[in-house]
Design brief:
The complex is a heterotrimer of chains A (459), B (182) and C (93). With 182 residues, chain B is mostly helical. Chain B is 82% helix and 0% strand. Chain B has a single domain, classed as Up-down Bundle (Four Helix Bundle (Hemerythrin (Met), subunit A)), CATH 1.20.120. The chains are: A mainly alpha (459), B mainly alpha (182), C mainly alpha (93). Chain A: This is Nitric oxide reductase subunit B.
Chain lengths: 459, 182, 93
């Protein structure tokens, strides 16, 4: 750690991991409800568990992005953070707001929560991923703006690098596109149309810039490769990301009532979306192969390479599988989507966050890397989580293919629920893989507390 | 190694792929709807498409001269050739705008029919690439003018040149495909 | 300042430029004459293929690089032109 104020990143990272644990627990509950429908009913119905699972994912990712921003920006700008105090205040506001929201989801019925939180003043609730009550949404905006204010001023008074510019662009985009969550037209087509401006333009647009910047930062640190080389790659990757990702929004407009040309735009441009992810993989491996120093944190290197590969597989390959309009006609909203969602989100965003935390957390605790044995443990956690996620994806893909076959093709299609009975075996297997994933996550956390062996002292 | 930065070549290949898919999609969409395409094509302004081809080819040639100039260490001459190429790019955009303006004022939009959907998307998508190419060339020109390149070190000039030739190449296919062949 | 000779590629590129211009005029003439049919289609598309190949070999200078780079562009060109041809010929009965 080179700058004192980078320390504010620590609570953000800890909270992120804590919420990640919560996300996985609710994922396991839901996975079990898939096979034993009345598990925990009526205390935690499936729809609530699902909402908590996805909302926690978003919130922990935001925590980790902010932590990454607070850690990376001072080091890139070569100056202390503009206001560490503001960062800590915002941390507590965000954490309390997030916790209250989750408590609200679990404690009262959703409709009651909507009434209690002023949804009749400005109706924004009830839409997938954007279920947060109005006060939470406003809170997210305030926290995001304070965060952006803080890091933007830090960059302005210090060195301006490509990495911080790309990160700022991504984070500002994140805040701007979130504003569409307040726009809720009563026309269902328009509602869906602009809903994607938050959802799609986040995960297949500006978040990829954040991902690219975080990965580039860690790669510079662990490989010692020249900044110019890494920045050049970063620019080409983000240019490709924006070109393909923005118009690629069209792959969500195939069947919602938007004009027909979106079937062409969406198919062509989103078919190209794997390219920036592929380039990111080539980039990560290329930089590690050309490394000019041996950084003691081998685990972080492994996570960085894993991010490249898994984001390409999950977002690139699994996304491409069902992105062409004629294919999507059959696969739309089946378990194929769930398979893609799991591997893409884990491979791109969860893994880049884990990479960043794996690199930064030892630094924040005054050492350049954890001890060898702790790193061995962490690498175990890497393989357990990654491999089990591959299996979750494969099982869901198999379930999806069978589902499409039984429910949407042939002369005698089955009903939705009858189909679900037929794919039950895959849901069982998925739940087992989920348990292995959870073990991996526990190991990841444990590796940070593992005392055996000498830690590498920061130079 | 191809001329220019390797990174721009990844970009160029990705662009070729994108346009390639669009060209092929056009051809197959036409195969399903030959009459509509043939009929709609009659309303295009072939002359403006052809003049624009001549304009882009010439600007590409100017860029070749710019690369030749910098290889002889003539920075100012290099900058002048690039300026000429950018000027041709401007002419291309102007002609294209007139053409598109005529179509839009005739009430044609992306939803008019499949042919016009392709005609408008392809030409506008290409239009944006011309703008991007001009931005890249402007950056190269400014650096060349301030003596930032030499006979030994001029990867930047070749990078900009390669991208601009690609923009030209795509139009060379787009013009006959959309305006002429039926 | 070191003295350098005029690069040897200017002359061929000038010839290529003039050829490209005249081929464009030919394509334009065919378009204005409103000619159609598979022979015309193959001629016009073939002209475009030759033109693209000229730009990539001479203007881009790929003929002086490794086969790989030329191969990628040429492969792309032949694939796209081939598929377009198939699509067009499939409509002729």
């Amino acid at each position: 750690m080179q700058y004192k104020s980078q320390a504010v990143a620590k609570p953000y990272f800890i909270a992120a991991i804590g919420l990640f644990v919560g996300q996985i627990l609710f994922g396991l509950i839901m996975g079990y409800q898939y096979v034993v429908g009345d598990f925990l009913f009526p205390a935690i119905p499936f729809n609530v568990a699902r909402m908590v699972h996805t909302n926690l994912l978003i919130v922990w990712t935001l925590f980790a992005f902010m932590g990454a921003g607070y850690y990376l920006i001072p080091e890139e700008a070569e100056t202390e953070l503009f206001s560490p105090k503001l960062a800590i205040i915002m941390f507590w506001i965000f954490l309390v707001a997030g916790a209250l929201t989750i408590v609200g989801y679990l404690a009262v019925p959703y409709a009651t929560l909507a009434r209690m939180t002023g949804n009749d003043i400005l109706a924004t609730m009830g839409r997938e991923f954007l279920e947060q009550p109005l006060p939470t949404k406003v809170g997210i905006v305030i926290v995001a703006l304070a965060f952006l204010f803080n890091i933007s001023l830090t960059v302005l008074k210090g060195r301006k690098t490509s990495i911080s510019l790309v990160l700022l662009l991504g984070l500002w985009g994140l805040a701007v596109f979130f504003l569409f969550s307040f726009y809720n037209p009563s026309n269902l087509v328009l509602d869906k149309y602009f809903w994607w401006w938050t959802v799609h333009l986040w995960v297949e647009g500006v978040w990829e810039l954040i991902l690219g910047a975080m990965l580039a930062f860690v790669l510079i640190k662990i490989t010692g490769v020249d900044r110019e080389v890494i920045e050049k790659w970063l620019y080409v990757i983000i240019a490709m990301t924006l070109i393909t990702g923005i118009i690629g929004t069209g792959h969500h407009y195939f069947w919602i009532g938007a004009p027909e040309y979106w079937q062409w735009f969406g198919s062509v441009f989103s078919a190209l979306e794997p390219i920036p992810f592929f380039m990111m993989t080539v980039f990560a491996f290329n930089m590690v192969n050309r490394r000019r120093r041996e950084h003691p944190n081998k685990a972080a290197t492994l996570w960085a390479l894993g991010t490249g590969v898994m984001s390409f597989l999950g977002a690139g390959v699994w996304g491409f599988m069902h992105t062409l309009a004629p294919v999507n006609f059959y696969t739309h909203g089946t378990q194929i989507t769930a398979a893609h969602g799991h591997m893409a989100f884990f491979g791109a965003y969860a893994m880049v966050n884990l990479t960043m935390i794996s690199y930064a957390m030892p630094m924040l605790r005054g050492r350049s890397a954890n001890s060898r044995s702790a790193q061995t443990l962490e690498m175990w956690s890497f393989w357990l989580m990654t491999v089990s996620m591959v299996f979750i994806t494969l099982f869901l893909t198999a379930a999806g293919i069978l589902q499409i076959w039984l429910q949407r093709m042939g002369s005698n299609p089955m009903s939705f629920m009858d189909t679900q009975d037929q794919v039950m075996l895959f849901y069982w297997l998925r739940e087992i893989a989920g348990l292995v994933f959870f073990v991996g996550l526990v190991l990841y956390i444990w590796s940070f507390f593992y005392k055996k062996g000498e830690a590498h002292i920061a130079a | 190694m191809p001329p220019g930065d390797l990174a721009i070549w990844f970009f160029i290949f990705a662009e070729l792929l994108a346009f390639g898919i669009f060209f092929v999609a056009y051809a197959f969409a036409r195969a399903h709807n030959v009459e509509l395409f043939n009929e709609s094509q009659q309303h295009l302004n072939i002359a403006s498409g052809a003049i624009n081809t001549l304009v882009l080819i010439t600007s590409s040639y100017f860029v070749v001269r710019a690369v030749a100039a910098i290889k002889q260490n003539f920075s100012r001459e290099c900058a002048r050739w690039i300026a000429a190429a950018i000027g041709m790019g401007g002419i291309f955009l102007a002609i294209k705008l007139f053409e598109l303006y005529a179509k839009f004022s005739a009430g044609i939009s992306l939803s008019t029919n499949t042919f016009y959907m392709f005609y408008l998307s392809l030409t506008i998508f290409h239009f944006m690439h011309v703008i991007l190419g001009m931005v890249i060339l402007t950056a190269v020109m400014l650096k060349a003018r301030s003596g930032g390149y030499s006979a030994k070190l001029h990867t930047g000039v070749e990078t900009g040149a390669s991208y601009w030739h690609m923009v030209d190449m795509l139009w060379i296919i787009l013009f006959p495909l959309v305006y002429v062949i039926h | 300042m070191e003295i350098t000779h005029k690069p040897h590629f200017i002359r061929p590129c000038t010839l290529v430029w003039l050829t490209l211009m005249s081929l464009t005029v030919t394509t334009y003439a065919i378009g204005e004459a409103n000619l159609g049919g598979w022979a015309i289609m193959l001629t016009v598309l073939g002209t475009a293929v030759i033109k693209v190949q000229m730009v990539s070999s001479y203007f881009m200078g790929l003929r002086r690089t490794r086969r790989l780079w030329r191969g990628i562009v040429l492969g792309w060109l032949l694939l796209v032109a081939g598929l377009i041809t198939i699509a067009y010929l499939s409509t002729i009965k």
